[in-house]
Protein 1
Amino acid sequence: MTTAVLAGGVGAAKFLAGLVLAVEPASVTAIVNVADDTILHGLHISPDLDTVTYTLAGAVNPETGWGLAGESWQAMEQLARLGGDPWFRLGDRDLGTHLYRTGRLVDGATLSEVTAEIATGMGLACRLLPATDDSLRTMVTLASGEEVDFQTYFVARQHADEVASIRFDGWPAAGAAPGVLDAIRTAEVVVIAPSNPVVSIGPLLAVDGIEGAVVEARDRVVAISPIVAGAALKGPADRLLQQLGHEPTVVGVARLYAPLCSTLVIDEADADLAGAVETEGVRCVVTDTIMRSPEVSAALARTVLAAGAAGAGDRAPEA
Ligand code: FO1
């Protein structure tokens, strides 16, 4: 079974780690958010691509969910010694990835090409595509009126500010990277990973052509709620939803995603809201979505694929 997964960072990476246990890894295409990307110290950093890559390679830092396990931090220590500000912590080995990516981009390679090279270098068997090779950046307007880039909001200010609005710099010009639209159109099941709907899935859908392709695939699109019992498992998704006028519950997620998916998978903790989710016009599947281990993620992946296949079957033309 071929799958295309719309992916942000840590939640998506954990789901993908289970998916590649459940199916042939070569049948999986992850389409990854790049609107968190930033240039720091002259280096092009792609946090979500690296989180997915390191997780699938079994090399991610298990405590943070980003960066590499067993890192050393001598470059950051030297930076601080020289008076630089190491607010965005780049480990010594992680820096090698950013050096490689930046060097290849400066040489004229596309982000898709470099991403494929890094994935191969890290031993990945599935396909990783950046959503776009163009520049697309999440910009956050705070309640104070100040506009900051995503990593300033997320890391430097620890997503503590009230947010007034979000925009994607580079929209509407940013076009889908090679293979992205085709992967969505041809996948037997399309998955919207349990990522932040506003700042991870939002910028993926903002790339020219992606939202249209997902809407067209709706019968075989399954989303996994990143909200469990009214809270985000990690990060500010619940607060962002609320601040931007959405309900931070599985029902709010269903309302947002109903035009895109035919099934929403929610956690057992929200089982009592399954009926309200279906009122929003999506089928609801209740299962364990807390990915404590790759085995739990693999079980979730099997449930998601079965739901997607059933959705596609519902509307399949009769033979
Ligand atoms: N997140 C942090 O909270 N603090 C950091 O210092 C930090 C550094 C960092 C370095 C490389 C990388 O790939 C990711 C990093 N992240 C860090 C995570 C990053 O901010 C992600 O964009 C968010 O986790 C949202 O997905």
Note: The chain has two domains: 3-136+173-318, 137-172.
Protein 2
Amino acid sequence: MTSVLVLNGPNLNLLGTRKPEVYGHTSLADVEKMCRSEADKLDLDLVFRQSNHEGQLIDWIHEFGREVKDGNSIGAVYNPGAHTHTSVALHDAIEGAELPVIELHISNVHNREEFRHHSFISPVARGIVVGFGVLGYTLAINGLYQLSRQGN
Ligand code: DQA
């Protein structure tokens, strides 16, 4: 079965309790359930991961770049959290592994602090989903699936 990776960066394990006025009350475990249900509908196997550690995230990006090349995965929906605004290493990992990525943010980063307006990930992302709350995860899975079907 073909997989889709949903990857979450630092602090997203706190979803549901961290700044609920910005990120909502849904926990990461509930987001995983929503993603699983969307993946099931599309006949995809969901791989759902979160880490607070940049090196771990880089290793997973490399792993899934290989999976996509082997025809076993369509790529990743990735919420890089604060790494979005800081990490050249994650930019290089996505580019180097040639992993198709949909960058996702729960909040609309563009109507927040200025330091959130720049993304190191966007130039190497296939698409971007911003500001739809946790619903964005299912939209992004669907979008990645459509792109992969078009052979893009
Ligand atoms: C976030 C936005 C980032 O600026 C922030 O550092 C996060 C979450 C979002 O999902 O809206 O951790 O990626």
Note: Residues 11, 79, 81-82, 84, 105-107, 109, 116 surround DQA (CB under 6 Å).
